[in-house]
Here is the input.
Amino acid sequence: MLLSPLELSCAAAAVFCAGLVRGATGFGFSMICIVLLTLLLPPARIAPVIVLWEIAASAGHLPFVYKEANWKALRHLGLGVVLGTPPGAYCLASLPAAPMTIGINAVVLVLTAMLFFGFKLRQRPGRWGTCGVGALTGLINGASANGGPPVILFFLSGPSSAAVSRASLIAFFLFTDVLAALVYWGYGLMTVQVFLLAAVLLPCVALGIWLGARWFRHVDEARFRRVVLALLLLMALAGLAPAVLKLAG
Here is the structure.
């Protein structure tokens, strides 16, 4: 996982920008990181690092938003995640990098586009529907550390307030990322190099999150969210192009 100084600088800039988004919205960190950092390293090398950053970010956020989270929905989502994460991690450990990268970015592209163009659920899914969303989230999270889009769509397209959605997402990501970290450990993906890279770039992540949280207090939330989603759409397209060219060539 040795990176040149230029590549390390690019990675630092990427995780700082992702931290800004995470601090302001409560989500988006993994989506930005997996799209940008897979330009430098394959998903199997990047996903475990992102999981460690997400655990640190959520653990720092949760004490401030604990009471606002929708814990009833989170229990059903959590059950689905437990079922979906191991098959996702198996795909990460077993499949070639190029198809995995294409699949990851295609999911980000489709689900982010749905959010961007205002997709809304007419009613909140029941227990098993919520569990199904959790299973899909776990599958994607295990395969890429990027399980955010399905559950973001679940919360942001429903009747919950922005504060409840943000708090629920923070709590949910802490659970899914701890689970993913344990599964990655079982597959031998949590290496010394993973912990080293996570530690080296953690200050950039922390600074981005801190500035993003401060920025959130002074901007219009709806407008900012649309800007973030537009950015994610562009990044998903940018991540798809090299992988498709590599697979075609």
Remarks:
- The chain is about 80% helix and 0% strand.
- The mean pLDDT is 82.
- The longest helix spans residues 221-248.
